[in-house]
Amino acid sequence: MERNNFPKMLKMLSAPNTPAGVIGPNALTQFLDPIDRQCGPDVRKTLLKTASIAALPDMSGLIPEGPVARFHQAVRRTLPHFAEQLCRQAGTGTADYVLQHRIPKPAQFVLRHLPPPVSAKLLAKAIARNAWTFSGSGQFQISSKDPLVLKLFDNPLIAGEVSQAPICFWNTAVFERLYQVLVNPAARVKETSCMACGDPSCDFEVTFR
């Protein structure tokens, strides 16, 4: 496969004319199994009720970001000792869903076989084209080349939150899993700034150990 065909594949991943204020359903559904395993179905039902979610999405399209944000906040507030682990498991599950259902296999093949610096930049562009799936009404930017930094402004999943340390564990896990599978297994993603800490954006630094 010719490398110059890859930009066409990136266009296949885009979602033009996406309504504002919606997000991918995996931002909610990928939490359910980890919560059931870790805390039990009763806790899962309580969290859904707290977030005023009466029915689960059917995975056929995007869903309003508001209930999803309330659910993320309920997880952090109700299960402070388990929240990071649950968010990371849900983020990893989200990335695996994207790999299985959203990124064409030929594009994945090309990414894995390009030089990592080139692959990392191309993946960042693909993520930017699909930012609505994880950022909702937030704004996504690619900030730096070395190290690569993914920036998220107005992340709705942490709106109104206040924390002494970054709390975007779900986003971090999504990015890290994608980079580990498609670029380099040694990829690590760290949230270096967070709006919950008073920073202007949530910044995710991508490195390769």
TrEMBL record:
It comes from the Bacteria. NCBIfam families: BchJ (TIGR02019). InterPro entries: BchJ, NO_sig/Golgi_transp_ligand-bd, V4R. This is Divinyl protochlorophyllide a 8-vinyl-reductase. Residues 147-208 form the 4-vinyl reductase 4VR domain. Transmembrane segments: none annotated. It comes from Roseibium denhamense.
